[in-house]
Amino acid sequence: MTDRRHRVVFNPAGLEALAEEGETVLNVAQRSGVDLDSVCGGRGVCGRCQFAPTSGDFAKWSLSSTITSLNRPTEAETRYHGRRPLSGDSRLGCQARVRGPLVIDVPPESQVHAPIVRKEIALKELTLDSASVLRVVHLDLSQVKDALRTEKLLEALDEAWQIVPIEVRPEVEQALAGSDAEMYESFTLHLRRKENGEVLHSVRYGTSVENLGVAIDIGSTTVAGHLLDLGDGEILASEGAMNLQIRLGEDLMSRVSYVMMNPQGGSQLKELARESVLSLIQKLGASAECDLSNITEIVLVGNPIMHHSFLGFDVVPLGQMPFDLATDEAVEISAEEVGIPIPA
Description:
Layout: E1 5-11, E2 15-20, H1 25-32, E3 50-54, E4 56-58, E5 63-65, H2 75-79, E6 91-92, E7 102-105, E8 132-138, H3 146-161, E9 167-168, H4 170-176, E10 186-194, E11 197-205, E12 212-218, E13 222-229, E14 235-242, H5 252-261, H6 265-288, E15 295-302, H7 304-311
Parallel strand pairs: 1-7, 9-11, 12-15
Antiparallel strand pairs: 1-2, 3-6, 3-7, 4-5, 8-10, 10-11, 12-13, 13-14
Helix pairs in contact: 6-7
């Protein structure tokens, strides 16, 4: 007699269950003690049982999970427009039925007892020495041609602060061009220190001296972050969140194995790391009620696999001898290049 049951793995808990053919994901979760919320009795109304199916080959569990392991979205899912809209491949647990081996991710918002990630920070005898500083200059550009505005700005910077940048970023000239700049008589300059001098990084209209920095530790399970005022060192907010990479494997080597076995695994790992970081930065900004465009520095740390996956480096060499690193030095890169849409 053919066994019509299928293996289902629930992340981040890593719990495995056997589902009957056609059984709903919500029923499998409730029967197996998996923390998946629901308050509408499985009618597809509350949206609390959302989950994300994960496709790929998972060596750790010796199974392949595909989108065909579930039924097609039901009418209830198609018409669902609740407070938590379905995004991407997300499904409702009460509507999705198991048709094959499956690995799924249960996000914190769908967990009855969602973990509260808290990360404290204690700074004692700290000497503040930010690489980024803000300097205000006064300048009327209303009668100055676009082509000469950067030159005039540099003259004003030298006169007011005795600073001559070794480099001017293209964004500066772009900000000074056009009629918007003519409306202001002062400009706030973001200068970033290098080994051989200072770079004029960007320009803000008017006097805007909020200088914010973010420090983030990308852990394999959680991502912790702190928002700081780089002017006086005050901690404005501290937050933590689950590392979304956990949906590809509970531990580091499971994730490396996933990348080895799935052609798009490296890209998926990178995008989940960056999504985790961006989400945490937005959470910090909301907590402190700060404008994220005032962030001038972001520092991230993590173990080699977290470091490499966030930057988009190949993590496969880190899972086998001789464990070669793509680099063992700090990497400086613009925020936009790693999917963080702020001018840092």
